Amino acid sequence: MKVTREQWLMVLALVLVATICTVLLGMVDEVTQGPITQAEQDTLYAALVEVLPPHQNDPIHDVLHISDADTGPVTLYLARDGQGKVNGAAFEVVAPDGYSGNIFILLGVDRDGQVHAIRVTNHHETPGLGDGIVKNHRWVDSFAGRGLVGTRWAVKKDGGDFDQFTGATISPRAVVNAVRRGLEFYQRHQDQVAAADRVAAAPGGV
Amino acid sequence: MDKQEIFAEGFWHNNTIFAQLLGMCPLLGVTTSAENGFWMGAATTFVLMGSNLVVSIVRGVIPKNVRIPAYITIIAAFVTVVDMTMDAWMHGMYLVLGLFIPLIVVNCSVLGRAEAFASKNSISDSVVDGLSVGLGFTLALLVLGGVREVIGQGTLFGTPLFGAHYPDFLMFILPPGAFIALGFILVGVRLINRWLQKRAAAGVVVGRLQEAAEV
Q: How far apart are alpha carbons A204 and B21 in whole angstroms?
């Protein structure tokens, strides 16, 4: 089959359009990459400050990577006091069983594995119903100070200690379960976190 | 058509939402608040202006048979630019709208303007068309978002209007509320149009009387 001149022109036109668009996007990507990383770090940092126990280090750059058969690789952001002792840690837990997609939660625990605070960082729960997991501050704060022992990790409807919302049980249930799994994960690796203490090390050294 | 007519046509008489009822997906998805509606509209306006501009520039060059894939590529490029720019410098809003920004590519009004207007008209006319259609779309999103936010949460642009004890009217935050609110807004638009028509008719009568008086 002979390719006509018109067909060549079509191919040429599409190739040109695609090339120009690709170059343009490459340039924009180059320009925006830095600010995007910065914005993501700022968002993470703002959430870290809220969930971490008191600390005097820079938790974004003071991390511990722990891999677990149940959870896969997890990044723990450490909170250290002035002496370098680990006061607690924050890490992301994912609730796959929300009402609409994954719920991402930043869980801050103190050294002994009790919840310091939690923040939902990303979710697609129903506005006005399930998004109480972000907006209902009393509910969010009801996690503070709770550990695996002495708390029934379920919503009240299921015989637990946590409120559900009017018309929304699935979202809070998913968050409660995810936080419990996070605490269990932390308990399994508590010695690794404690081993990250660097009381004896020179100030600022790793 | 002069620029003023193009603008009136895109912004009001042929408004994407009010007259054509196109672009319903972003309309229903993001208009839970006035601010969301505004920024979605602004993003769409930018894409419309950019794609109309480029499509108009290349209108004699792209062979007819491959114009649709070429237009879609151009539109997708502008949408990706908006996507990355918002991610970089409006991160908070990006987290809210992120899901809907890529969907601007498939907003039929964007390809519609490229095909129906920009591919046949001059560069400056096409930019004005993109701007007016975009602003008309923004107006619709802003009004619908505002109505849903006021009724659903008792706030406007995040500012409480009725004190702290406003009982949230959940249905207006959920998708059905968007349909109901849009229905009433369309009634309002029809009433305004009828009033405009009457005024125009009255203007014609007055003009004739004046002519008669002069004669």
A: 62
User: pLDDT tens digits, residue range B93-141?
Assistant: 888 787 788 888 888 889 989 999 999 999 999 999 999 999 999 999 9
Type of residue found at B110: V
Contacts of B38 (CB under 8 A, 6+ apart): B138, B141, B142, B145
How close does chain A come to B178, measured CA to CA in Å? 13
**Within an 8 Å CB–CB cutoff, is residue A14 touching chain B?**
yes
CB neighbours (10 Å) of residue B158? Answer: 10
> Tokens 């490229």 belong to which residue?
B114
Kindly give the pairing relationship between strand A103-110 and strand A72-80.
unpaired
pTM above 0.90, yes or no: no
| Pick from B40, B58, B59, B37: nearest CA to B48 | B40
Percent of chain B whose predicted confidence (pLDDT) is above 90:
39
A63 DSSP β-pair partners:
A77
Closest Cβ–Cβ partner in A13, A31, A129 for B63: A13
